[in-house]
Design brief:
Strand content: 15-25%
Strand order of the largest sheet: 3-2-1-4-5-6-9
Order of helices and strands: EHEHEHEHEHEEEHE
Radius of gyration: 17 Å
Number of helices: 6
Structural class: alpha/beta
Number of strands: 9
Length: about 230
């Protein structure tokens, strides 16, 4: 039976890299994104890797759209992996004027993955599948003017750790993946040397490892950093 993976944020650099890696291993890719043209590029890359895929557009800050995404991904009755790579959040000071941005950030990077997980869990349980959350360094540190983003990432880490304890006896794996500086289109080459950054393909390999381990093992947390400092 062909395995199916929902990749949330599959239209971006890391999400697309994971989609291509899994497609090359024979998985069917269900790619989520917000932009139709970017999703089309992901599906073209999946096809070029010898795989098959479908796409779904949804705004993650809208609970109804998150529900629709979960329903679409679960329609086959089983789902072998849900991989969360979506990010978001702007730099704003801690002040009453930031409440709206805080709400938007937390809706997209904490409430949405929690909601999606709860809605897709029956399908993932049926497959004895896996959840993978790209959380990142903001789950480990605090940074000025990034209060909601750091809070959301810390919260997602806590959610994933609690989820593992809840579903491990069902054969469902849960992994946190914390990338360091990754060479994507967001990398500022004046500040960071792209060649010394972690490459998208490296993160894709770690993601593939997490969701394809034998059923008796689970990597619960991985941190991937550049071997050499990428700072200029």
């Amino acid at each position: 039976m062909t395995k199916r993976a929902l990749i949330v944020g599959g239209s971006g650099g890391i999400g697309r890299g994971i989609a291509v890696r899994l497609a090359g291993a024979g998985w069917t890719v269900l790619a989520h994104g917000r932009k139709e043209d970017a999703l089309a590029q992901t599906l073209a890359a999946v096809s070029a890797a010898g795989g098959a895929g479908e796409s779904f557009q949804a705004e993650l800050t809208d609970p109804e759209q998150v529900t629709a995404l979960a329903d679409w991904a679960s329609r086959g009755g089983r789902l072998d992996a849900v991989i969360w790579t979506a990010a978001g959040g702007r730099s704003v000071p801690t002040a009453p004027e930031s409440f709206e941005e805080w709400d938007r950030t937390l809706a997209g990077i904490l409430h949405a993955p929690m909601r999606l997980t709860a809605l897709t869990l029956p399908a993932v349980r049926a497959a004895e599948g896996a959840y993978l959350y790209l959380c990142g360094i903001y789950a480990k540190i605090g940074m000025a003017k990034m209060a909601a983003h750091c809070a959301g990432r810390h919260g997602l880490e806590g959610f994933a750790k609690a989820l593992f304890e809840e579903v491990r006896e069902d054969g469902v794996r849960v992994t946190l993946l914390h990338p360091g500086f990754v060479n994507t289109q967001m990398t500022n080459p004046e500040r960071l040397d792209p060649a010394k950054c972690v490459q998208v393909e490296d993160i894709a390999e770690m993601a593939a490892l997490a969701v394809t381990l034998p059923a008796n093992a689970c990597v619960t947390e991985m941190m991937v950093r550049p071997q050499r400092s990428p700072y200029r």
